[in-house]
Amino acid sequence: MSDKSFSHEEALAQRFAHQGYLVLPKMAPLAMVEGLRALALEDLQQSILPVEYEAQTHYPGAPASLEAVGGKTVRRLLQAYARDERVRAWARFAPLIRWLEKLMAEPVLMSQAHHNCIMTKNPHFSSLTQWHQDIRYWRFERPELISTWLALGEETLDNGCLQVIPGSHLMSYQSEQFDKEHFFRDDLPQNQALIHTSCPVPLEAGDVLLFHCRLFHAASANHTEQTKLSLVHTYHGVSNPACEGTRSAQWTSIAMRGT
């Protein structure tokens, strides 16, 4: 690797450390993206289990129940890693794993208990995801995990791309800043000031967003006529296991070996 390439990677790593997220443009090869998108559309059309429905989230804009109009709109195709070799190939894609190992400074494992899904944001019945940190329900020895978000198509504000609050993973918070579901309250002036520093993260097909588990993020509903599809996994270092007896330890994490 040239000194110039090394310096560029170091600069990106420092950006991730300070901002809590990083976009790696066009990391996934086009053929890989097309294969994953075809898989997602096929499984979505057939509602291949396990899935999570929008109605089950009870998020703003979601159908009121499974029996309501749009109640069987799929939000997530769960257990993505076990669905198909195309997903497994991406999850252990060597350039991706090298980045994760660089950012975590140790070998990494992929959690099967968290994310590990194909996110689907459908027209008409998609919900709004409020500001939150993913670590709110995860239990590991340290709150140091990184999620990978692979865009399988264009992601914009119109179809509900992620929005993030840069640097929010480095801050400390009080319990009263969150509601009973651990969402960041947008009715508090101190929270509003932080939310006003947020920015959208638009992506093109094949782009990868890496984000820290303590980074605040949110997303609007899909206001277009096309379903938005994203493949999402979460990784942790080998020295940071899930806490025994918790949901995080329900499924065994899988070692990744980048080459």
Textual characterization of the structure:
The protein is an alpha+beta fold. The protein has a single domain (74-255), classed as Jelly Rolls (Sandwich), CATH 2.60.120.620. The chain contains 5 helices and 13 strands. It has helices at residues 3-19, 30-46, 85-91, 94-104, 189-195; strands at 21-24, 51-53, 74-77, 108-111, 117-121, 129-132, 145-151, 162-164, 199-200, 208-212, 217-219, 228-237, 254-255. The strands form 2 sheets. Strands 1, 2, 3, 4, 5, 7, 10, 12 and 13 form a 9-stranded antiparallel sheet that branches. The longest helix is centred in the N-terminal third of the chain and has 17 residues, at 3-19. It starts with a helix and ends with a strand. The model has no long low-confidence stretch (mean pLDDT 95).
Sequence stretches where pLDDT stays below 50 over 5 or more residues: none
- Structural class designation: alpha+beta
Fraction of residues in helices?
Answer: 10-25%
Tally of helical segments: 5
Please state the second-level CATH architecture: Sandwich
What's the CATH H-level homologous superfamily? q2cbj1_9rhob like domain
- What's the SSE pattern? HEHEEHHEEEEEHEEEEE
Name of the level-1 CATH class: Mainly Beta
Work out the radius of gyration. Answer: 18 Å
Q: Could you say how many structural domains there are in total?
A: 1
Q: How much is the average pLDDT? A: 95
Overall 3D shape: globular
Distance between the termini: 15 Å
Beta-strand content: 15-25%
Number of strand segments: 13
CATH topology: Jelly Rolls
Q: What composes the largest sheet?
A: 9 strands, antiparallel
